[in-house]
């Protein structure tokens, strides 16, 4: 009976974690470049149950009764790096990254492209949020103030918002001078990127992500005056949230039934005799 309570409690915890993930997805449904998380539920290893203290089997071993499940858990959260829809804003500082042809990977999962940015500690990070702005010194930054980097690894100083970006990422200032080219990198396995918040991703693999600029096997376009929407499907997310809530309630009722059975066992069965 106690094992059943543990299994029901494990199911409640897993569904609560899934609900929190879905709530975060829904909260970022309007965040440019946001990639929705997906949950993977997995069962704990089953236990083999045998009848102890008996020699009914010909070989003298305890007979096998069957298997006992020990509940489920949320194994991992995996971002979905599918391209989001483009939204026109007509703002010069909004630049959408539109993926084209991508190389075939060994895993079968498509790779993904990202901007390179510099966080507050000077570390290299990656992002799909093209909602940029200009700081007081004229540098191109993310909306959170992280510097956007060019192909040479330097910060990009555009001066003011009157700059132009072509499809290849070359930036021309208001005087007509070419100042930099936006750096775009390619992640063959995007699952090696970890979300840090504020639209930033950290690479957990070895070395650095290769530059996609000039790679003939990769095609992409940069669209100034556009933003990539979040790829969260709000209606599907709401449906999944309802399913997670119902699953949580089901496990809760099972746990309450076990609790009532334990109460009856303690208060009533003990009085017999």
TrEMBL record:
<dbReference type="InterPro" id="IPR020013">
    <property type="entry name" value="Flagellar_FlgE/F/G"/>
</dbReference>
<feature type="domain" description="Flagellar hook protein FlgE/F/G-like D1">
    <location>
        <begin position="112"/>
        <end position="171"/>
    </location>
</feature>
<protein>
    <submittedName>
        <fullName>Flagellar hook-basal body protein</fullName>
    </submittedName>
</protein>
<dbReference type="InterPro" id="IPR010930">
    <property type="entry name" value="Flg_bb/hook_C_dom"/>
</dbReference>
<keyword id="KW-0969">Cilium</keyword>
<keyword id="KW-0975">Bacterial flagellum</keyword>
<dbReference type="InterPro" id="IPR001444">
    <property type="entry name" value="Flag_bb_rod_N"/>
</dbReference>
<dbReference type="Pfam" id="PF06429">
    <property type="entry name" value="Flg_bbr_C"/>
</dbReference>
<comment type="similarity">
    <text>Belongs to the flagella basal body rod proteins family.</text>
</comment>
<keyword id="KW-0282">Flagellum</keyword>
<dbReference type="InterPro" id="IPR037925">
    <property type="entry name" value="FlgE/F/G-like"/>
</dbReference>
<feature type="domain" description="Flagellar basal-body/hook protein C-terminal">
    <location>
        <begin position="223"/>
        <end position="267"/>
    </location>
</feature>
<feature type="domain" description="Flagellar basal body rod protein N-terminal">
    <location>
        <begin position="5"/>
        <end position="35"/>
    </location>
</feature>
<dbReference type="Pfam" id="PF22692">
    <property type="entry name" value="LlgE_F_G_D1"/>
</dbReference>
<dbReference type="InterPro" id="IPR053967">
    <property type="entry name" value="LlgE_F_G-like_D1"/>
</dbReference>
<keyword id="KW-0966">Cell projection</keyword>
<dbReference type="Pfam" id="PF00460">
    <property type="entry name" value="Flg_bb_rod"/>
</dbReference>
<dbReference type="InterPro" id="IPR019776">
    <property type="entry name" value="Flagellar_basal_body_rod_CS"/>
</dbReference>
